[in-house]
Amino acid sequence: MTRNDAFPVLRRSFKLLEVMGLRHTGMTFNEISTLFPDAPASSVSRLLKALQDEQIISKNEESRFYLLGERAVQLGRKLRGQISYSELLRPVIDDLALELGHSSVFFKMADDHFELIVKHEVPNGFHYIGEGKSNFNFANHGSGMVMMAYIPTADRERLWKNSVQKHATKPRKTEYMATLEQIRRDGFHLSRKDERDYFARVMAPVFRGDLFVGAMGISMLGLQTQDQDYFKPLVQKVIEVAAQATEILSRF
Questions:
Q1: CATH 1.20.1050.10 is the classification of domain 3-78
Q2: Do domains 3-78 and 83-249 have the same CATH topology?
């Protein structure tokens, strides 16, 4: 047996993944078999079954096409240094909204704005902008203020000069920066009267390792007049879920 044939299953697996990665619509069993003319159909079947069991590939039962599986896709993203925030955090955002009964959201920090990556809007609840849309309000938007609290000092000063101090609300810098310091101490921001006076918002920071990436939380209609104790369990849950999101992102 030659050195190249010492591990035929491993060699065939790599070859299949290389070809399948270029075939976004998938491959049939016959197409896969032609890649391995020296292998009987039974060997190809066993290979595909093993890769399916490990979620390296998947099979569409309707079309009978084989495609890259979730583990292969995630590994590829990890090797390229890329991850899908929406795919990873959507289950977390969904669970947060369903458990608390309020619309939930994750915003990711960008250069001069923050982008809505994933949301879950409950019936008769708060409605956000669309996924993929941007917000530039760092002055009194709960998410924007969490962003400002955790970004590097140089970026904070730049956005204060170029954005916040030009906002219609004309915030005073001393009071504004004190609020950001309070957010960092508390690890969350409860805005009883956010950018509008008909809803409240709770947001907490999300990290990827030591890197701050964004903020997640809930928006609540008609609760801005509730006392502080009412919000305590909601705040605690948002903090817990933000920590869970941090743990998920830090794996990649």
A1: no
A2: no
pLDDT tens per residue across span 30-45: 999 999 999 999 999 9
Cα–Cα distance for residue pair 122/42, rounded to 1 Å: 50
Tell me, which fold does domain 83-249 have in CATH? Answer: Beta-Lactamase (3.30.450)
CA 185 to each of CA 119, 136, 160, 250: distance values in angstroms, whole numbers, following the listed order: 26, 24, 20, 22
Residue recorded with tokens 């708060």: 126
pLDDT of the residue at 2: 43
C-beta separation of 57 from 48 below 8 A: yes
Please choose, from the candidates 5, 72, 66, 69, the residue with its C-alpha nearest in 3D space to the C-alpha of residue 32.
66
Q: What angle do CA 30, 33, 34 make, to 5 degrees?
A: 95
With bands split at pLDDT 50, 70 and 90, how would you rate the model's confidence at 80?
low
Sketch the domain layout of the chain as residue ranges.
Answer: 3-78, 83-249
**Nearest one of 55, 125, 54, 115 to 86, comparing CA atoms:** 115
pLDDT digits (tens, 9 = 90+) for 194-217: 656 668 899 999 999 999 999 999
* pLDDT greater at residue 75 or residue 31: 31
What CA dihedral angle connects 152, 154, 156 and 158, to 10 degrees?
A: -150
250: number of CA atoms within 13 Å, CB side? Answer: 13
Query: What digits encode the pLDDT tens for the residues 146-162?
Result: 999 999 999 999 999 99
Provide the strand spans (E) within 54-158: 57-59, 66-68, 103-109, 114-120, 134-135
Distance CA 223, CA 200 (A): 6
